[in-house]
Amino acid sequence: MLFSPALDSICVRETSPICITDMLVLVQDSTHWLQIEPLTSTVQGVTMFRHRTPKGSYECTVSGLRWLCERDVILKYHFRNWEAYSQLLKDMQYTQGGPLLDITMEVGELEEVHLPHCVCLGTNPSLRNEMKILHVEEHGVSLEEVHEVTRFHAKILHPKFSAISVILRYIFSWNVDVHCELMLYLTVKKQTLIPRLYLFPSNPGQILAVEEQESKFQGSKRIPITRPEQSLKLNSSFRLNIPCSTSIFPPRIHLIHRDTTPSFFKVVMEITGIEMELIGDDERTVWKEIVPTDEYITETHSTSAVLGAGGPAESSLTGPAEQQLRSVRTEFVKRVSRPALNELLDGLLQHTVINQEEMESVKVIAERTEKARDIIDMVLRKGNESCSRMINLLGELDPCLCSLLQINSVGEPT
């Protein structure tokens, strides 16, 4: 059986921002990696990712996992929580160096796999000698030597899979710089703005954990922000400064590997532009960002909701669901987020608005706007009852978007 690259969504490779200290690293990865978006599914509450590829070199857009194969392969994986293995790592005198990935080969074998890591090697290239590959197997664990370490990946040859990750010898983790992630989410409640800023060592599994947690907060929206230009010292602490804030809690966050969802600063402030700076132990500013008011009002809420209206906007649309949905098609495609689209697809399948084949045909689309366009057009073709279900689902998944689009939830079809 031959597989075509078209079977998975393929997008242009994007180069990760270069950390200033990484410029000293001698080993650079010159391989061209074709980025592909995985097919996703949920099995017993666990998000599963699946790829099928022909011969070539690939990188998963979700996990950062890279692999090289000489023939057709199918692989699947999911992120595992480190919590069950934290004591084991301490006993072994190692600490996390990246996400814990449970990888299974369904078809074929890989020549190489490159596991993502967060260690910045620029300040201390010898750290590559203190990195190992951890295999978590049914009857215990084992360690494997790393073949080569590049800026963001550790390479191993002819891998045999289980739950697998990069780990770092514990004694060195107290003086190591790591690449970091900052994720900003905002919630608007009448006249109050509540930003939540997450800070953690780069880990795709933790990014997914934050997205899942934030999906439970009504009205929460992620606002794109820059990453720190430099690596940050692991085990150091940072405080967040927002001059116009009423409160910031906690006062400081320690930059450590966490077994579960990362910590975040919760801020309470009036609705205004946000000027943020992250300050280290030595009182030096390591990151700055400005989010203007019009950006987050547009992204998180309609004007009427920001001003505290208790119900639908006065100009909310009325009439048949199909008519409402058709009238907001352009704005829906422009504004709906990727996580909302994925949850909407699952909901439409659960309510039998679409079937499994239709869902799979949309899931392989990489471009967000194209995916959104296919979903709304598919539902519009199915008539008023299906449109009613979509509007109701959207109201549950993203009430702020519904408010912005000024569409109203309608009675559940019988």
UniProtKB/TrEMBL annotation:
* Entry keywords, A to Z: Cytoplasm, Immunity, Inflammatory response, Innate immunity
- Domain CARD per the UniProt entry, residue ranges: 317-409
| InterPro entries referenced in this protein's UniProt entry, alphabetically | CARD, DEATH-like_dom_sf, FIIND_dom, NLRP_Inflammasome
Where on the tree of life does the source sit, at the highest rank? Eukaryota
- Give the UniProt subcellular location, in the record's own words: Cytoplasm, Cytosol
One Pfam family it belongs to = FIIND
- Domain FIIND residues, every copy: 29-310
State the protein's name: NACHT, LRR and PYD domains-containing protein 1 homolog
Q: Which organism is it from?
A: Salmo salar
